[in-house]
Amino acid sequence: MNHYTLKDITRPSGGFAMLAVDQREAMRLMFAAAGSQSPVADQVLTDFKVNAAKILSPYASAILVDQQFCYRQVVEQNALAQSCAMIVAADEFIPGNGIPVDSVVIDKSVDPQAVKRNGGKALKLLVLWRSDEDAQQRLEMVKDFNQLCHANGLLSIIEPVVRPPRRGDKFDREQAIIDAARELGDSGSDLYKVEMPLSGKGSRPELLKASQRLNEQINMPWVILSSGIDEKLFPRAVSVAMTAGASGFLAGRAVWSSVVGLPDTEMMLRDISLPKLQRLGEIVDEMMARR
Fold first, then answer.
1. What digits encode the pLDDT tens for the residues 18-30?
2. Is 193 known to be catalytic?
3. Active site annotated at which positions (predicted)?
């Protein structure tokens, strides 16, 4: 059985310029906030994701899709450029306490062999990290996920995202990102997808120092995500993170959030989102060339 390697999801430069369209209820909320008629129908999300895949995939080394809204449609419509790999989200989001994602489990309905037959190269797992929840349980879940991927020749991408503790109100996000990386940064996955320190704000030296602290904890290649970062700051964040040791990005919002809910999505994705993704890919290549 052939096993995919990280080269299968990178640009020729060896850097990652990957697009995420696997947002689920979060994307529905974005459409609602942009004034789309509510409730926002599933089809609205599916159409947006498939259009994004068709228009933006030539400029992405890989694209992350979700089973709920677009994996099947992306495959059936052959939406991805040949040069763009497919990653499938294998996390099931469990709502609770008034939020769309209160906890996460491995999605048992994702069939890794089918993913592979359909051209998928990797699976992705969101891991919610709270300081007062059981570390052993998280590590077990990641271990099971890695096993599932590797037994099927797929790459394993984990995405630890920090949340305030269940009890108490003390929450130091920056420290939590480091603590999560210390716990999960050597867990045997192929790639670590992480929140950018300081939400990409502050001076370049401050950002670099925070990113270097993070790099020290992660014993595998890592990329940053764009949720929570002002999209204007994201290109700098990619450049700083890569200076500190990151290998690129896996991001959605910094590329397409500004066109959510606008009329003529296809034109907007072409005119607004595509140049953003292109520029980010160039930054990745420039930073890889310096190594």
1. 999 999 999 999 9
2. yes
3. 193 (schiff-base intermediate with substrate)
